């Protein structure tokens, strides 16, 4: 099956107490990052900035 990358919105500070979890194969990390940023912008009111992308990228976890 290979490695997967997982983004767990519940690990980010949020007033909405969001528990959305998204996953993608490891070779689609950028796609998951884009989807995670889009979620943060649309549902949490963030702006798409290099800082936000960096924060989200750091929280993405690789699992086997």
Short description:
The chain is an alpha+beta fold and 64 residues long. The protein has two helices and three strands.
Question: Please, could you describe this protein's structure?
Answer:
It contains two helices and three strands, in the order ββααβ. The chain has 64 residues and is an alpha+beta fold. It is globular and about 35 Å long. It starts with a strand and ends with a strand. The model has no long low-confidence stretch (mean pLDDT 94).
Shape summary: globular
- The gyration radius over C-alpha positions equals 11 Å
Mean pLDDT: 94
Strand order of the largest sheet: 2-1-3
Pairing-aware structural class of the strands and helices?
Answer: alpha+beta
Query: How far is the first residue's CA from the last residue's CA?
Result: 8 Å
Order of helices and strands: EEHHE
Q: What proportion of the residues is helical, as a percent range?
A: 40-55%
The count of strands amounts to 3
Question: How much beta, percentage-wise?
Answer: 15-25%
Protein name: DUF1059 domain-containing protein
InterPro entries: DUF1059
Observed structural traits:
single chain, 64 residues, three-stranded antiparallel beta sheet, 2 helices, 41% helix, 20% strand, globular, DUF1059 domain-containing protein, DUF1059
List the helices and strands and how they pair.
Layout: E1 4-8, E2 21-25, H1 29-44, H2 50-59, E3 61-63
Antiparallel strand pairs: 1-2, 1-3
């Amino acid at each position: 099956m290979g490695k997967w990358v997982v983004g767990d919105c519940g690990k980010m500070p949020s007033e909405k107490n969001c528990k959305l979890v998204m996953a993608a194969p490891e070779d689609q990390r950028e796609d998951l990052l884009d989807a995670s940023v889009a979620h943060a912008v649309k549902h949490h009111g963030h702006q798409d900035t290099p800082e936000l992308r960096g924060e989200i990228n750091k929280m993405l976890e690789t699992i086997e």
